[in-house]
Amino acid sequence: MAQSVTLDTEGRPTLEVFAQADAATTFRLDVSADGSTWVGNFEVWSGVTSVKKGYLNAFRFVRLRSDAAGSAGNKVTLILTAGG
Fold this sequence. Notes:
Layout: E1 3-8, E2 14-32, E3 39-56, E4 61-66, E5 76-83
Antiparallel strand pairs: 1-4, 2-3, 2-4, 2-5
């Protein structure tokens, strides 16, 4: 099952992305200035089981999405944090 998590960064300048899956999948990072108009696929990681990345961030809202991973019962973890 595909999943997503959205974060209001409240203007914080740093962003950490963590994603992990039991089986290879595609993770996508989307960004938005207002939370309603999205720039999809700002960054895409295909055929991976994990992503760990930090950014300097100028977007108010960020969304991390995953495609379905493997077969039924496989797990996906999505975490976004903002600081600064």
